[in-house]
Every structure is written in C-alpha cells, then in structure tokens.
Specification:
Radius of gyration: 25 Å
Shape: globular
Structural class: alpha/beta
Number of helices: 14
Oligomer: single chain
Helix content: 25-40%
Strand order of the largest sheet: 2-4-6-7-8-9-10-11-12-13-14-15-16-17-18
Number of strands: 18
C-alpha cells in the first residue's frame, strides 16, 4: 500500500493517465482528484483499484457526472457501500465519456438492480467488468433486462459469480435479442452441460459473439458435443476458451466434424481437460483439413507418444497454425520432427514436459532446420549443464528464434 504525501504529480494539469492502484487515498488526494476531474481536460484513464480511502468515495464519483474526458475507470476491489452504488448509478445516467469500467471484486450483488436503470439509458459504456461480485439469479434478471435494451455494451465479464445454468438461461434470452455484445466471460460460474446445451442452441442463431470464455466450469462431453454442433453453423465465434473443464476424447469426433467446416474459429483453448492420445489423434486429423485455426492450446491433457506423433503428422500438412501450447504433457520426441517441415508455427510452448537429454537433442536438430519459429518456451524442464550446452549450440545455427524461455 502506497502512502502519497505530496500532490505534485496529481496537480499536473497535462496528465492523461493516472495510476493510483494500491494507494492510501487521503482526504487531500480525493480533493485533488475532484479538482482534476472538474478542470483537467487531458485525463482519460484513472486507476483506483485496491485503494483505501479516508473520505467517502461517493464524493469522487459525484464529480464524474460533469467530467467529459475520462474514458477508462478502474474501481476494482474498492469495497463499495450501498450508497456508493447509488452514486455510481447516477454517474452512469449522466456521464457521456466513460467507455471502460472495471468494478471487479466489489461485492455488488443485488446492487445490480440499482445499476439497471442507469445502464439501460447509458449510451457510451462499451466494456463492463463485473468479475467476482456475488451476482446470482436476481442480479442476472436485471443484467438480462439491461442487455435486451442496451445495445452499446460490447464486452461483459461475469467470471467468478454464481451464474450457473439458471442464470445462463436468463443471459441467453438477452443474447438472442442483443446484436452488439461481442465478448462474454462466464468462467468459474458452475455451468454444467444442461446450461451449455441451451447456450449452444443460442450460438446456432447468434452471430455477434466473437469471444466466449467458458473456462473453469463443469462441461463434460455432452456439453462439448452440443458446442461442436453449434460450431458447424455459427459464423461469429473467433475465440473459444474451454480451459479446465471435464472434456474427454469421447467428444473429439464431434469437434473434428465441426472444425472441418467451421469458417470463423481462430483460437481454441482445450487445456486442462482429459483429451489424451485417443482424442488428439482425432483432433489432429481435423488440423490436416482446417485452414482457419491459428492458435491451439492443448496443455495438460495427458498426451504422450501416440498423440504427439499424430500431432506431428498433422503439422507437416497444416499451414495456418501459428501458436501451439502442448506444455504439461510428456514424450515430445514424437512431435518435434514436425518442426523441420512446418513453416507456419511461430510460437511453441513446451514448458513442464519433462524433456530429457535425448528429446532435447532431437528438438535441437529440428530447430536447426526450422525457419519460422520465433518464440519457444522451455521453462521448468530442469535442464542440466550439458542440456544447456546443446541449446547454446543450436542457437548458433538457428536464425529465426528471438525469444527463448528457460
């Protein structure tokens, strides 16, 4: 926690970005900030996250009603009181410049109802972060009503709340109507296959969502199969994050069918699931024909020799994938041969793969002939001095690698 005792920086009238995160905000600082927000026409970004105040923050919020230049405001982890939420709602009704608002970790909960009327009429806010705010079913009713009317908001972060399947259904009703929301983060929200099936039906119709984060939920193969079915016809999603669910090889055939014909999905995160060799062999066949996907994360999926060999064969054919993460798996020896033939991959993560000297030598030989890779992550493989010498010799012969993490 920083204790600011002088206000020279704050009183600088040409300041356009001010970061006071983790600061002990005294009365004098609050009054100076009020003065800046009233008379400074250069300040566009203000970070007040993780702050402690000696004066009511509502005084500062009140000033935002007349400010016309601030576009980015971070108020995460400020322990809002009920009166603060009332004041913030009034700000959102009157302010005409704010575009990015971070309210992460403020225990807003039922206070969403106070923000509802404000967000319905607000026509400038595009990005709203409500992560970790104990928002449950009643709050999601209000959020759903907001999204049915507010067509300015494009990014909504709802991770670490209590959305679950029932709350997701409310959001889906709004998404089917809302034509502008492009980014939705629903990670860590107790969503199961039942909710995912409803969402998948929505994705068959919706074409505005481009980024969807469903990580850290309870998605199994039933839900993955429904998502894959939606991907066959969906023309909006560019990035899909399914990190840390319970997806196994059983749903990879469905994903294979989807990736053969999907024309928009460019980034797919399947890390920390249970795909294993059987699933990767199926998925690898999709990579041989898919020409859209550029980023794929398969970290921690219990992949070993047979899966790595199938992936290697696929990358000898695939010419669009540029980023691949296969960290936290084993037996990469069968994979690295692909680096001699693939000319599209620029970033590769092989961290925490228990790479031994024999595997490192094979990797080194491949890197000597590779002309596309610019970033390689080998962290936490616990190389000895001899291993490091092998890497050093390889670097002398490789002319493209610019980033190497050891």
């Amino acid at each position: 926690m920083t204790d600011i005792t002088t206000l020279n920086l704050i009183d600088n009238i040409k300041l356009n970005e001010l970061n006071l995160s983790h600061t002990f905000i005294t009365d004098d600082i609050i009054l100076s900030l009020v003065n800046i927000l009233q008379y400074n026409f250069d300040l566009t970004s203000l970070n007040l996250s993780y702050c402690v105040y000696t004066m009511d923050i509502a005084i500062l919020l009140n000033t935002l009603k007349v400010n016309s230049t601030l576009t980015n405001l971070n108020l995460s982890k400020n322990k809002f009181k009920y009166t603060d939420i009332i004041e913030l709602a009034d700000v959102l009704k009157r302010n005409s410049s704010l575009k990015y608002l971070n309210l992460n970790h403020n225990n807003i909960g039922g206070g969403i109802k106070l923000l509802r009327d404000a967000l319905i009429v607000n026509s400038t806010l595009t990005n709203l972060n409500l992560k970790n705010n104990i928002i449950s079913y009643k709050g999601l009713i209000d959020l759903s009503n907001i999204l049915k009317i507010n067509f300015t908001l494009t990014e909504l972060i709802l991770s670490f709340n209590n959305v679950n399947d029932f709350g997701l259904k409310l959001l889906i009703d709004a998404i089917l109507i809302n034509p502008t929301l492009t980014y939705l983060n629903l990670s860590n929200n107790y969503i199961t296959d039942d909710g995912i099936i409803e969402l998948s039906n929505c994705l068959k119709i919706n074409s505005s969502l481009t980024v969807l984060n469903l990580s850290h939920n309870y998605i199994h193969d039933k839900g993955m199969k429904s998502l894959a079915d939606a991907l066959k016809t969906n023309v909006g999603l560019i990035k899909l994050n399914l990190h840390h669910n319970s997806i196994t090889y059983d749903s990879m055939s469905s994903l294979y069918d989807a990736l053969k014909i999907n024309s928009t999905l460019m980034k797919l995160n399947l890390s920390h699931n249970i795909i294993n060799n059987t699933g990767l062999i199926i998925l690898a066949n999709a990579l041989k024909v898919n020409s859209i996907l550029i980023k794929l994360n398969l970290s921690k999926n219990n992949i070993s020799y047979n899966g790595m060999k199938a992936l290697s064969d696929a990358l000898k054919i695939n010419s669009t994938l540029t980023y691949l993460d296969i960290s936290k798996n084993i037996q990469i020896k069968a994979f690295v041969d692909a680096l001699q033939f693939n000319s599209s991959l620029t970033s590769l993560n092989l961290s925490r793969n228990y790479i031994d000297t024999e595997e490192l030598e094979v990797l080194s030989e491949s890197l000597k002939n590779n002309s596309s890779l610019t970033s390689l992550n080998l962290l936490y493989n616990y190389f000895d001095k001899n291993d490091l010498k092998i890497i050093s010799n390889t670097l002398q012969l490789n002319s493209t690698l610019t980033e190497l993490l050891l």
